[in-house]
Every structure is written in structure tokens, then in C-alpha cells.
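Our consortium's second objective concerns turning raw sequence data into structural hypotheses that experimental partners can test. To show how far this objective has progressed, the report includes one record in full. It was chosen at random from the queue rather than selected for favorable results. The single chain below, 73 residues long, was entered without modification.
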Amino acid sequence: MDREGFVKLAFVGIGLVVLSFFVRGFGQLVLGRDMAELLQAPLAVVGFLIVVYLFIRATLDAVGIWTVENSDG
């Protein structure tokens, strides 16, 4: 993974977490609280797992175990 892909994946992960809050908020207005939580949960979990993976990957890069390559160009 290069640094450009790392940043794109970070935006995706954070975007999914933020999107899950919007889904829950608007879902409560339209579908009710239980259904909104059901729709929000997968987005929040996947986004959180991506962010945790990136944190671990960045930590391993800082230590020098698993480097994130620089982009060409």
C-alpha cells in the first residue's frame, strides 16, 4: 500500500463512521429507532475497523516493521 492509498482508505473509513451517524439520525425520523440502529451498525463497524487497521498499520510503519511506500510521482 502506498501513502496515497493509505490516505484514501482513511477518508473512506472516517466517511463511513460519519455516514453511520447520518443514517441513524435520519433513520430515526423515518423508520424508527430500532430500524435506524440496525441500518447504522454495519456502517459504523466497518468504518471503525478500517480506522483501527490504519492505526495499526501507521504504528508499524513508524516502528519500521511494515512500511507504507511513497507514491511514484
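The partners drew two points from this record. The CA atoms of residues 28 and 34 lie 8 Å apart. Helices lie at 3-30, 33-63. Both points have been shared with the crystallography group to help prioritize constructs.
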